[in-house]
Design brief:
- There is one protein chain.
- By secondary structure, the protein is α/β, with parallel strands linked by helices.
- Helices cover about 35% and strands about 10% of the residues.
- It contains nine helices and six strands.
- The strands form two sheets. The chain has a four-stranded parallel β-sheet with strand order 2-1-5-6.
């Protein structure tokens, strides 16, 4: 884990310690659940995308919100993001499921729930994940950053942001595609970054 996260979000270390004790069978695999914090320095974050739950299938989930492993059917959330991207910046359709080209430029891809929790009533939110994400957002809150909350569940944490640019959008689903396209998400983000003298994100995906 990057040292900056360890200092500002100490709950991450205790959470990782629990993951080492046993494999609970939930998605994503325990080794991947803190991947955003292992790969991106806090100071380098320009944009935060927050979703709701990781993909239910471990074969899909990579630890990054919305990203999926290669060799499987593209999840509808990722497919919707791709269509939003094509419509906004007029790029070629991405053929891979990876979003590493975004994360390497400072896009933090996290879910409100770090892992998928199961009960007899189905899936439910868990306080531990929300505490971690609450502290994450609070420490990242700066006017130069952009915070995108997808769906009602993620938007509950938008109250953590008082200085950064907050964008609230429906959860990326094919049925909401036309509404999502109107937001011009990717170009809107870059306009904000440029306004704050920050290098914009090259959103094109291969």
């Amino acid at each position: 884990m990057k040292p900056s996260w360890r200092r500002c979000v100490p709950q991450l270390e205790s959470y990782r310690s629990k993951l080492k004790l046993q494999d609970d069978g939930m998605s994503p695999h325990p080794d991947l659940r803190l991947r955003p914090y292992d790969t991106t320095n806090m100071i380098d974050v320009k944009v935060v995308f927050m979703g709701w739950n990781p993909y239910r299938n471990r074969k899909q989930a990579t630890g990054f919100a919305f990203e999926a492993n290669e060799g499987i059917h593209k999840p509808q959330e990722l497919a919707t993001l791709h269509l939003m991207l094509i419509d906004d910046i007029k790029c070629r359709p991405p053929y891979r499921h990876s979003l590493r080209q975004w994360t390497e430029q400072g896009v933090l891809l996290i879910n409100r729930n770090i892992q998928r929790y199961k009960s007899s009533r189905g899936f439910f939110d868990h306080t531990e994940s929300h505490t971690i994400q609450h502290r994450t957002l609070t420490h990242l809150d700066q006017s130069r950053r952009v915070f995108v909350f997808f769906g009602y569940s993620a938007q509950k944490l938008s109250v953590c942001i008082t200085r950064g640019l907050v964008i609230k959008l429906p959860y990326p689903h094919p049925h909401r595609l036309e509404e999502l396209k109107k937001a011009k998400l990717f170009s809107t983000i870059n306009k904000h970054l440029v306004k704050h003298n920050i290098k914009p994100i090259d959103w094109k995906l291969t």
